[in-house]
Amino acid sequence: MKTDIHPTVFDAKVTCASCGTTWTTTSTKKELRIDVCSNCHPFYTGESAKLLDVEGQVDRFYKKLSARQTYVEDQKTREESTNINNRSVDDLGLTPRATEGLKRAGVLNIGQLVEKFAEGDAALLAISGFGQSALTAAKKKLRALEIELPEPPKVEKVEKVKAEKPAETAAETTETTETPEAGE
Questions:
Q1: Residue 89 in contact with residue 109, Cβ under 8 Å?
Q2: CA distances from 30 to 12, 25, 27 (A)
Q3: What is the pLDDT of residue 123?
Q4: Mean pLDDT, consecutive 10-residue segments, the chain of 184 residues?
Q5: Cα(50)–Cα(52) distance, rounded to whole angstroms?
Q6: Helix (H) or strand (E) holding 3
Q7: Residue 183 lies in a domain
Q8: How far apart are CA 65 and CA 72, in angstroms?
C-alpha cells in the first residue's frame, strides 16, 4: 500500500437539523449537518408512514403564483418610473462616432433625439459624425423601444410649387381670354 495517499480522517460531530440530536463518527470533514436522523424520521420512530402536507399543493402553487405576479408588477412599475426619454443616447448602442457626434451637438438623451427627429432627417444629418447609416440605426432602435417617431415637417418647396401652379394656370386663362377679345 502506498503511503500519504489517503485523506485525513477526523472524529466528526454530526448534528440533526430536525431534532437537534448530536453524535460522533469518523469522516473526512470535521462537522456534518443532516436534515433527518433515525431519532426523528417517521419510518424509524414508528409514527405515521405518510407525512401529512399541512398546506396542499394547490395552495402552495397559488402562493408562488401570486408572489410571481407581484414581482412582475413591481418590475413593470420600476420600468415605467424610469422615463425612457431621460435615458442617455449611449443606451441606443449606436456607433461611437455617431454617439459622440450627437453629444457634441447637445443631444444627450433619447428625448432630445426624438425632438431632433421632429425637425426632420436633414437636421440630424447636418450633425457632424452622424450619417445616413446612424440615422437608420437610430430609427430602428427607437422603434424597438416602442417610441413613436414624430412626422417630419413637410418641405416648403413642395407647397410653393403647388401654390405657383394655380397662379400660372390662372395667368394662362387670362391670356387666352384676352387673345380672342383682341381678335374680335
A1: yes
A2: 5, 10, 7
A3: 84
A4: 86 91 93 88 64 67 89 80 73 88 88 84 86 88 82 61 52 51 48
A5: 6
A6: none
A7: no
A8: 11
Q: How many domains does the chain have?
A: 2
- The CA distance from 70 to 52, in Å, is 29
User: How many whole angstroms from its chain centre is CA 117?
Assistant: 22
Residue closest to 92 by CA, chosen among 119, 115, 110: 110
Residue 127 lies in a domain: yes
So what's the pLDDT on residue 26?
94
- Has residue 1 been placed in a domain? no
Sheet containing strand 10-16, strands side by side: 22-27, 10-16, 31-34
**Residue-number span of the structural domain to which 18 is assigned:** 10-45
Q: Are 40 and 89 found together in one domain?
A: no
b/e per residue 27-55 (b: at least 16 CB within 10 A) = eeeeeeeeeebeebeeeeeeeeeeeeeee
The model's pTM: 0.40
User: Cell for 19?
Assistant: 431534532
Which pLDDT does position 15 carry in this prediction?
93
Handedness of CA 25, 28, 30, 36 (dihedral sign): negative
In whole angstroms, what is the distance from residue 125 CA to residue 109 CA?
17
